[in-house]
TrEMBL record:
It comes from Saccharopolyspora flava. The gene is trmB. S-adenosyl-L-methionine binds at E66, E91, D118, D141. Keywords: Methyltransferase, S-adenosyl-L-methionine, Transferase, tRNA processing. The keyword S-adenosyl-L-methionine applies. Pathway: tRNA modification; N(7)-methylguanine-tRNA biosynthesis. The lineage of its organism: Bacteria, Bacillati, Actinomycetota, Actinomycetes, Pseudonocardiales. Catalyzes the formation of N(7)-methylguanine at position 46 (m7G46) in tRNA. This is tRNA (guanine-N(7)-)-methyltransferase. GO terms for cellular component: tRNA methyltransferase complex.
């Protein structure tokens, strides 16, 4: 290990995503061509150091980072419902980001910026400590096979990294439909000294389902297949 490696707080050996194809529909491609230069950036193309979020949005406002926005179904609705926040979505899947821009265009929102790439690299290299008001991770890839659990996004190291980027009072909100992943999330967050469960007094420490979190196709499928959804809401004291 050389000296620059030692300065990196989190080095990844596996990633939490699979690289999917980049083929886009005509509508997605057009949305990409119209909006990406203004609204998006590749994580690998960001200038070295912290991202100047307030300048990018052109205003100072609370910052929410959603990791893994997928096809943007939930994200677009939440962005529209919270015009007073600067909403950052990070996702590796290009057609998903394009679809999110299409949805955002229809909803005429102006408080969304998109980042394409690995959220861990973004948080580690381009997000200032204590700068985020909220981090959301909804229905992350479950990696159900035991030998793949190491690929899950929610791990002690990633949660420590996320916590370090939250402001005091900032929130980490997680939701999943995989019982075993929900338990892992809870175990990891309970063991993170920088976090406190806002719903510690609720049975199991699970948060009541917030009625403002839109019901997605993942959630509907989970219901259909008899899986329960768990929300977890932690804050940095
Ligand atoms: C199962 S999907 C859920 C999408 C969305 N949150 C929803 O509820 O519909 C998980 C998404 O997380 C993305 N993802 C996984 N690991 C990521 C990472 N490290 N950085 C950015 N995106 C990631 C995947 O590409 C995938 O689109």
């Amino acid at each position: 290990m050389n000296s620059s490696d030692q300065q990196v707080p989190f080095r990844r050996t596996v990633v939490s995503y699979v690289q999917r194809g980049e083929r886009m529909t005509v509508g997605q491609q057009r949305a990409w061509d119209r909006h990406w230069a203004e609204l998006g950036s590749d994580v690998t193309e960001l200038p070295e150091g912290p991202l100047d979020v307030q300048s990018w949005f052109g205003r100072s406002a609370p910052v929410v980072l959603e990791i893994g926005s997928g096809m943007g179904e939930t994200t677009a609705q939440l962005v529209a419902a919270q015009p007073d926040v600067n909403y950052l979505a990070v996702e590796v899947y290009k057609p998903g980001l394009a679809q999110l821009m299409l949805r955002a265009e229809k909803l005429e929102v102006s408080n969304l910026r998109l980042l394409r790439g690995d959220a861990i690299v973004l948080l580690r290299d381009h997000v200032e400590p204590e700068s985020l008001d909220e981090v959301r991770i909804y229905f992350p890839d479950p990696w159900p096979k035991k030998r793949h659990h190491k690929r899950r996004l929610v791990q002690p190291e990633s949660v420590a990294l996320i916590t370090s980027r939250l402001r005091p009072g900032g929130v980490l909100h997680l939701a999943t439909d995989w019982e075993n992943y929900a338990e892992q999330m809870r175990e990891v967050c309970e063991a993170e000294p920088g976090l406190r469960n806002r719903y510690a007094d609720e049975p199991g420490g699970w948060a009541p389902r917030p009625d403002w979190r839109p019901v997605t196709k993942f959630e509907n499928r989970a219901h259909d297949e008899g899986r329960e959804i768990h929300d977890l809401i932690y804050e940095r004291p």
